């Protein structure tokens, strides 16, 4: 196998982002779709005697909240990813790796969501909450690494990028990891409080902001 890369191939790798965006969009779409698999339909033959459908559905509230929280969070992640590529117009090998690691974190989200929904009412709830919030800490850190690598010295930015927008995104991204680290610490003491904070943070990030750079991962 010839590992030699020609100059035209290097240029193509350096300047092409369309395939990265298309691939990333597909990964986000799959990850957000997988969340619904944790919502189970109560089977008629499995309903205990005297338990009605409404009660059985209400008993699945952790799954509903987990679905809504993770759906909103992944949606915000996708919006952020889309926003980054309005400023990023080039790529290189390390950028592809960082983006791949970020997408790996995104595809992992359905697992801790299912785990938390299953164990939130048990004695193992804190362990599940730690894994759930810890996943978001890692994703937030990866977003920062991706953005800081792309913006370092204007390495991968559009030549006509908006400097004010870039500064705004950089400022906002400083707080994402810190917020999720706080939630992770809370998870060691209260799974429900940690989950509630994740839900509130997802709602906050999903709300429209004055500036297009105001959404944090």
Descriptors:
70% helix, single chain, 217 residues
Describe this structure as you would to a colleague:
- The protein is an all-alpha fold and 217 residues long.
- The protein has one domain.
- It is 70% helix and 0% strand.
- Helix 2 runs antiparallel to helix 4, helix 7 packs antiparallel against helix 9 and helix 9 packs antiparallel against helix 10.
Euclidean distance between termini CA atoms = 40 Å
Structural class: mainly alpha
Query: How many H/I helices?
Result: 10
Q: Strand tally, please?
A: 0
- Which sheet architecture does the biggest sheet show? none
The gyration radius over C-alpha positions equals: 20 Å
Query: What is the H/E order?
Result: HHHHHHHHHH
* Count of the domains: 1
How helix-rich are the residues, as a percent range?
A: over 70%
Task: Categorize the overall geometry.
Answer: elongated
Average pLDDT works out at: 84
Unreliably modeled segments = none
Strand content: under 5%
